[in-house]
Amino acid sequence: MIMKEQTDIIFEEFSEQTEGGYASFIQSALKGVSSGFSLDSASFYEYDKKIRLLSLRVCHSGGLIYEHEENIKPETGSPVARALETMRPVRAVLPGGKYLYFPFSFDSNDNSGTVGRTGLIRLERNPRRRNFSSSESLKICAYLRSFLRFYYKAEYMALSGRYEKNIAAITELTEIFATALRVRDSFRKILAGVQVHFGFDRVRLYLIDEKNHKLKGELSVDIVGKIKSISYEEIPLEPGAHRFADIVLGQNSGVFMERYKDCVLYMPLAVQGVTIGLLIVDNLLSQQRIEPQELTMLKSFGGQIALAVDNIRLFDKVEELSLYDELTKLPLRRYFNTRFQEEFYRSERFKQPLSFIWIDVDYFKEINDTYGHEIGDVALREVGRIIMSNLRKIDFPCRYGGDEIVVLLPQATASEARRLAQRLHDEIDSLRIPVSFAKTKEMKLSISIGISTYPEDASSMEDMREKADDALYWVKSHGRGGIAMSSDVVAAKAKAAEEEKKRGA
Amino acid sequence: MKIWLLSDFDNRKHQTFRSLVYRFLSTSTDMKIEFFVKSRKSMWESLFAHLRDPRHNPMADIVEIPQNWTELFNRLGMLADLKPHLESLQKNLYPEPILAELCRHSRNNIYSVPWWQESPALFYRPQAIKTICKNPKDELASWNGFRKVLDTLAAHKKKIKYSRTLSVPGSSGAVSVTEVLPRVWGRRGGLFSEDFTRAAFTREETFGGIQDCLNLVLSGHVELFSQDRFENGFRPDEECAFVLSSRKITCSGRLMEMLPYPGCANGGGLLLVHNLAVSSSSPVQRDAAAFIAWLSEQRNAITFSEGFGVFPCLSAAFEEKLQRDRNADVYRHIFSAPELMPNIMAYPTAELLLERALWNLSLKIARGDYSKEDLTRELIMAQGEADYLLSLY
Q1: Which of A7, A48, A110, B46 is most buried, by the most CB atoms less than 10 A from its CB?
Q2: Between β-strands A53-61 and A41-48, what pairing exists: parallel, antiparallel or unpaired?
Q3: Residues of chain B found within 8 Å of residue A65, distances taken between Cβ atoms
């Protein structure tokens, strides 16, 4: 009866530490048996039948609980080997002390199924103290058995805690995947969600670039939640090129992969049977095993993740179509207007220059009429390509309409804008468009350019646009194929007006 | 305040620490201290568990870590900078080699405080080898000399009364990283190239060092997964002719002499340093730092290290302890040019990779189906993983 009460008290203590699970339970058992039966130490060992090794998990000695790494191979015929063979307690008096070996074997459940746990508890008194009598041994064994019965409750509580955590993860992740379409940084949200809920050392996303037949790195999230782009990683989608490619292509990557299976999971993302990318989660830094239940759960999320990723890509595609000109790949006017507003405000606020270049392809209507729209399209595409290849990251071009293209140059002065315009002018001037049916077999292009700059030429967005347009008109009305700055045009106009005035006088 | 202490094969470490805690609490009555002893593996898992889910896996306020874990856990944002709290703890109170590996990327901060140190040495029983080794100091200076004496001794085992030729106290049963690294260092090997751009597990020096240690097992000098300690208690020194240990051997009865670790006769042996760090998420960082400062006081540092036969890191305490030691000259020689394991982010994981390889090899040896190719294969695999790790971190 006293024993029962003791066990209950210890179990109550244990039940307060639901997070501690198995380890806390064993510690409580060792503490209880040590203090209840006046032992010098009590140690808990698990036995791996396959490799025949006893491994120390935790020990209680001198009033302290401690873990330690100790692996022992029981010698045939020794008391400990007998205890494990017969699964009955064995007493022994040896030079090191007096011992009672209590073997145990029970089934334990986790998400991966039933796991058999075998081992023994070693109870020890030093050589000068009393032996374990048979009646005391019976009491100790009864005490430990009653404790092990409580293990199922402990396990249930630990499992219930894990399930609660999993349900919370499912709810939150499902919401993230569902809303992934509406947020700008969707990939980040998905990866961060997976990292936070599963707690992997790293989560990486690679997407298939079908056009270039490559697997391209997208994002990586590390254990502290730091997200970085891995767009510099490009893997040819060919067998043997890289193990990631082999996985996506469904081929085995050999021994090295096998070795990784415990702490790395490669998850191809597929939608309706078509692989669109690869999600890689790993515990490489901590070298910790990805638990079977995590694996199962992540695999069950695989479909949702793939769908969310695919949706995001489709959404991007739709957005691209609505904001970018398909022919020149330049942003459209609607997108440009928003960006112009933002850049103008920024220039105003930080007192930085902003230049506006207006480009017109000379005689574009005649090109279309003479050579046909197909050649006209080629001409525009080439002009767009040359413009894009000459811009800085912060510059913003736009197909403004027909053959008119404008470029916004944040933080660029009039002279800097002029230098760029000259470069564009020269490159397009040296461009030759092949025309197989023409006499010359090729066609030459030229452009006219007008430039205005904030704040020297204009004080508002509308003013900038007008001044650039005026400058362009000036070039077009003076023979085309040239470049005019708004300030030059104003000066020229003023000079012309002055001369006119003189002539009138 | 909660403390996680690393476990030790010598339980006196924890007992000494407990008495120090009691002494500290007797002077600061308003503080409550609880400490837990974790194995190295369990400490590692607990720290990562905290990183993954801090709410469900709170970290102790103070943790004891091997010095070369500092960089990793600092980079993961888990360790508090103790400099604001430990003004009295001047860095010049510690030897330069320890300071050099304290925190490679921020020498101005203190993310862990050096606590105690140990360096492996060779202990021998003169009585046991007097007929086969005339000049132990010279003959046991090199690894080959040591092996020769060991082999001769084993061949004459029946004539001597010691049950074992060699003991490695603290062994977990398998050959482990802590056992092989001193020999690897002795052969001037290491886990990484000097510029830390490549893993060097298969480099001749490293490979050879590991092989030397495995050969001790294969030739029967060291027993794997021995049941002896399990049933007979810890009593190696009374029964062995040689002991490879980083602890002072305090044997009752027959005397043991001490020499530097074989192959490190010119100094430059491996120094293992253990530090105390404070969690960056601890709400009682000031108290934690105060306790660490108290533990680092000369008197307390000596009490603690004497408790289980190691040395304090504090220079003055180390000197004081050395002056009282009968093997002071040998220790002075060992600590004259100590080398520490590099404190880089990937190093602790690389050690785990090697540990796993050694575990696999130990099982193979125990089963009797080991061949040298197994060592080559395991090290190639571990090196591949370590190289990959280096590319990531």
Answers
A1: A7
A2: antiparallel
A3: 36-37
Q: What does the pLDDT look like over A387-421, one tens digit per residue?
A: 999 999 899 999 998 889 999 999 999 999 999 99
Q: Which residue of B has its CA nearest to A19?
A: B56
Contact list in A for residue B387 (CB cut-off 8 A) is: none
> Residue A84 CB: number of other CB atoms within 10 A?
23
Query: Is A19 touching B (CB cutoff 8 A)?
Result: yes
Give the tokens for residue A185: 């940084």
Contact B229 A65 (CB under 8 A): no
Q: Which of A173-177, A457-461, B202-206, B245-249 is predicted with the least confidence, judged by mean pLDDT?
A: A173-177
Residue A434 to residue B11: CA distance in whole angstroms: 87
Which residues lie closer than 8 Å to B298 by C-beta, 6 or more apart?
B312, B314, B316, B317, B320
A167-176, A364-373, B333-342, B343-352: least confident range: A167-176
Residue with tokens 């400099």: B83
Among residues B163, B341, B142, the alpha carbon closest in space to that of B236 is found at B163
Q: Which of A68, A72, A74 sits opposite B39 (nearest CB)?
A: A68
Question: Which residues contact residue A354 at a Cβ distance below 8 angstroms, ignoring those fewer than 6 apart?
Answer: A343, A344, A347, A408, A409, A410, A411, A412, A453, A454, A464
CA distances from A144 to A137, A406, A476, B287 (A): 11, 83, 99, 40
User: Chain B partners of A51 at a C-beta cutoff of 8 Å?
Assistant: 363
* CB-based contact B227 A94, cutoff 8 Å: no
Give yes or no for B22 touching A (CB within 8 A): no
For chains A and B, count residue pairs whose Cβ atoms are closer than 8 Å. Answer: 118
Report how far apart, in Å, the C-alpha atoms of A185 and of each of A188, A217, A222, A320 are: 5, 16, 17, 16
Burial A481-494 (b: 16+ CB within 10 A, else e): bbbbbbbebeeeee
Q: Is the pTM of this model over 0.80?
A: no
CB atoms within 10 A of CB A424: 23
Interatomic CA distance for residues A499 and A31, integer angstroms: 108
Rounded distance, CA B122 to CA B263, Å? Answer: 10
CA distance B334 to B353: 28
3-state secondary structure of B347: helix
C-alpha torsion angle, residues B160, B162, B167, B170 (rounded to 10): -170
Amino acid, single-letter form, for residue B196: F
- In chain B, residues with a C-beta closer than 8 Å to the C-beta of A62 are 11, 14-15
Considering chain A, what is the average pLDDT of its residues? Answer: 85
Look up residue A433 and give its two tokens: 């468009």
Residues of A in contact with B393 (CB under 8 A): 285
Query: Angle at the Cα of B32 (from B29 to B34), degrees rounded to 5?
Result: 145
DSSP string, B98-133: HHHTT-TT-TTS-SSEEEEEE--EEEE-HHHHTTT-
Q: Are strands A234-236 and A396-401 parallel, antiparallel or unpaired?
A: unpaired
What are the φ and ψ backbone dihedral angles of A437, each rounded to 5 degrees?
A: -90, 0
Q: Check pLDDT > 70 for residue A45.
A: yes
Query: In this complex, is the C-beta atom of A5 within 8 Å of any C-beta atom belonging to chain B?
Result: no
Chain A 26-85, residues with CB within 8 Å of chain B CB atoms = 51, 53-54, 61-75, 78-80
